[in-house]
Amino acid sequence: MTPAETRAAIPPKTDVTPDLPAEPITEREDGQGSVVSDSTVDSEAVGGGSDQADATLKRRFRWTPRRVDLAVFGGFLLVAVWVTSQIWADPAGRVASLYSSDPAQVQFFLAHSVRVVLHGEFPFFTEQFNYPDGVNLMANTAILALGIPMVPVTLLFGPAVTFVVLVTLALAGTASAWYHVLSRHVVSNRLAAVVGGWFCGFSPAMLSHASWHPNIISQFLLPFIVWRVMVITRSTRPYRDGALLALLVTAQAFINEEILLFTAMGCGIFLIAVVVQRPALWSAAWRPLGKAVATCTVIAGALLAYPLYIQFAGPMAYHGLSDAVRDYGNDIAAYLAPGSPTIGGNQRANVNLAPNYSEENAFFGWSLALIAVGIVLWLRREVLVRALAATAGFYAVLSLGERITWWDRELMVGPWEWLVRLPLLDAVVPTRFGMITSVVVAILLALAIERSRSLPLDPRTLRTLTAGGLVLALLPIAPMPLPMTTRPPVPEFITSDRWRAYVGPDQTLVPIPVPNMGNTHGMRWAAATNLDFKMPGGYFLAPRNGNTGDPGRFGGRPSGIGRLLEEVATTGRTPELNDRQRRRSLDELRHWRAAVLVLPVSQPHSEPLRQTVEQLVGPARQELDVWVWDVRALTDRTA
Description:
four-stranded mixed beta sheet; DUF6311; single chain; alpha+beta; transmembrane; elongated; DUF6311 domain-containing protein; membrane; 639 residues; transmembrane helix; 28 helices; two-stranded antiparallel sheet
């Protein structure tokens, strides 16, 4: 067995590796990224003929490992701020230029976290939207593990500011976490760890979700979960290590369960790939692995038992995703194109290569894709690299979805066709498997930089080749500021609390048009008041027809008045309504216990909307910047 195979036949180095030094050595990087001890630096400074003052200055300002770490973390944070700079300019007035629904939903969930902390509300279900059926928040990624710690920020500055804070910290935190784990347990070269962390935090897949999904890009726990899984394969304290893993798993479950499932699957596939190549490793690993996994299952199962019961069997639980997203898949060509929010990206060129611009989960660009393949071929003798390549390939294939396509031309049926109906996998968006492929590519880049130190090249040539390769691989997909556009402000009628004169505790405020997947402004109104009023409709996943256990769909029960007003808002045409339509609309308003209907004066097609609503409930009255219909007298009547 070659030295490289011996080094790679086991999972990455962890804190239980026996050959770690007993005492910490203060280290820094030399000009090639190599780590050298500070004692060597000091002796070189003094022994080289420098005067005492220069030697003292060098000792005082040397780059210690801690300072290097802080500089890397600060650099990642600055990049994250630059990426989100357009929304930082006006968090409440700017939103992603393509889709505005997901940020409004996240802001609603952040406001719900405030109510959980301040009012002790039930965290896993709410009736504050989709009244009276309510929404199962465990089945809708309510990000409690992010929202609850951010309650002070939400109270002081509002959920719109909290949203951009979360996105910024998610990008920087994910990059920093991967850098930390890679630099401590996988590679000794700091440059290699920086590059790996960079790509984990700022890959095109992460950038594509950054405008909309802070829960998906909040992956700062994943490297620690992966690290602890590797630890338990040869742990001397499996019960303790299993308990630590359980706490990480529980926390990640309240950030995003889908990414947690992907990570668990990836760890399993990686370990299987290692054992297949080196079966003898299993005899030493199965005992500590079994004990730790059993401990993790018991503890995490106990902590998550009730929330998962609510998610899968509680009110408004659904089984399986909406047909609108379950067949989302990447085109093969997506792996060769740069992502839209990058230097080399082109939205028009990426049409049909991904389900939409918020799901560009591949998009490495041709140069990085070829370099990644080249790394695997170069280091193919290493067990670690072959296992990583198998994991990346597995996830890349699954990310193609039920139909494998090349430049939007269908080639064959994909394996996802036979997996999509399995429990848990039926709630997965397949295109997102590509995010795990990105993580594996980041680790391969780090390993390539680390292994390049052994090449028989002079230092200058090695530095030149390394820099050139990184520029070729990463420059075309370097992040750009996320594009934003303005959005309507929350009406003064809401922010000044004028609505409180109309709406009682068991009544609803009905925004016009009724909130749905394509119109979520009303959800932002509610979030701005910390959800002090209830409303019908909204953007969420729920069982079809409101029957618990049905397949999922976006939105609640079909609403006649909701569809009517949505059509008017889209077309700008005022329909002529008959008595039957009026009676059915009043029945729905009574079912919602509506107190007041609110239409912003500046709403697009506000005049046709006003005329339509007046046919249903009578004349409107303008109050501040909205049209208001006080319908309490109508909805209090018995049918």
